[in-house]
Amino acid sequence: MNNPSLNTHWMPFTPNKGFKASPRMLTGAKGMHWITDDNRQVLDMTAGLWCCNAGHGNPHIAEAIARQARELDYAPCFGFGHPLAFELSERLAHLAPGNLNRVFYTNSGSESVETALKMALAYHHARGEAGRQLFIGRERGYHGVNFGGIAVGGITNNYKAFGQWLPTDHLSHTQDLRRNAFSRGLPLHGGIDMANELEKLIRLHDASRIAAVIIEPISGAGGVLPPPVGYLQRIREICDQHGILLIFDEVICGFGRTGEAFASQTFQVQPDIMTTAKGLTNGAAPMGAVLAGDHVYDAVMEASASGVEFFHGYTYSAHPLACAAAMATLDVYEQDGLYQRGDADGEISQYFERGLHSLKGLPGVIDIRNYSLIAAVEFDAPAGTDIQAMAWEQGLMLRSLGNAIAMSPPLILEKEHVDQTVGILERCIRQHFK
Ligand SMILES: Cc1ncc(COP(=O)(O)O)c(C=O)c1O
């Protein structure tokens, strides 16, 4: 069927009626570009949905998936294993910081989050502290769309029709436009005070009831908010003082976005549990992985004498095709030096930063912020959707976040792509605010 009806596909996070009136169809992708159904090339400044960090259509990844499909297309993972899953776990544990040596596979970021939350509960339960059932998330945090994730998340639209079914409270978000607007890299002001708000929440709820704090090192879908200096370190200290686990949701930050494999390495703060997905397979196969500290794993293992220790898992956990995609993706990241390409002081990150910040002073622009190769431009009105649509017409894909547009380009980005982006963005902003 070359021209299928658009009626039957209920599209996720999409204005369905709007899309169906004016569809934007992607039919191919290569390197930094999409190909559309009307044969246009569109520059991808979002790495798909923050996931195609090595760019599109990498032949090594494609071949690995095809080979695996011929060799072992599926393997049940409850009570059975296949070697690639163990090989990949070793590789991820080696890559991850500190004692994050235990790898649990999921199929998405949302599932990684649910898994991490359950691990935290299981850990406390195993240690005789089953009263620790409450989670602290953060305003504007995004942790996927399952019931746990929307409860700890802090984006109202994501839960207002569905409820918040986990016991939660939330830290304030870390945006401070008055003091930190137009920050390049980490914002300088307010980090310690913002983190100290956690102490207030602990006094309110009591540490004996709190299982974990879950935050993104850099808040992504909530607006691209790099952590102010000292914030993450202070959150870690307070968690340690009160026996509270710290979960870093690195579904966006992981796999090179901040100049190291993981943001916890860039910012030198060690979480107890880390969620990943997206860049793990370069978006080429659905897969997530939760990396748990040895102490978390050991506590859960030691609590049961025999039988299943952790009553959790997915039919497609450690799917062979996804494992093959992940192994090949890690090869590409390593061989092409892509983790380092996101280094905040590196040439391309600096060029990207300078290019974007040159838009300061344009009408409607109230903030430009970035850490390395993740950035947002914020407006004084909800201009994101309109600017995204205009940019698309001019050959550029951006992500709209309401009052802002976000960028997280593939790490293979070159200077010419930055120049093109800045040029189109400037035209679109001037057109919108004229
Ligand atoms: C930080 C974070 N956590 C979780 C998710 C959910 O991932 P998925 O859409 O794969 O379920 C996302 C998706 O953008 C994310 O940014």
UniProtKB/TrEMBL annotation:
> Which keywords does this Swiss-Prot/TrEMBL entry list?
Aminotransferase, Pyridoxal phosphate, Transferase
GO MF terms held by the record: adenosylmethionine-8-amino-7-oxononanoate transaminase activity; beta-alanine:pyruvate transaminase activity; pyridoxal phosphate binding
What this protein needs as a cofactor is: pyridoxal 5'-phosphate
Enzyme class per UniProt: transferase
Q: Which Gene3D superfamilies match?
A: Aspartate Aminotransferase, domain 1, Type I PLP-dependent aspartate aminotransferase-like (Major domain)
Q: Which GO terms describe its biological process?
A: biotin biosynthetic process
Recorded hits in Pfam families, A to Z, give:
Aminotran_3 (PF00202)
Cite the EC number: 2.6.1.18
Stated family: Belongs to the class-III pyridoxal-phosphate-dependent aminotransferase family.
The protein depicted here goes by the name Aspartate aminotransferase family protein
Q: Which organism is it from?
A: Oceanimonas doudoroffii
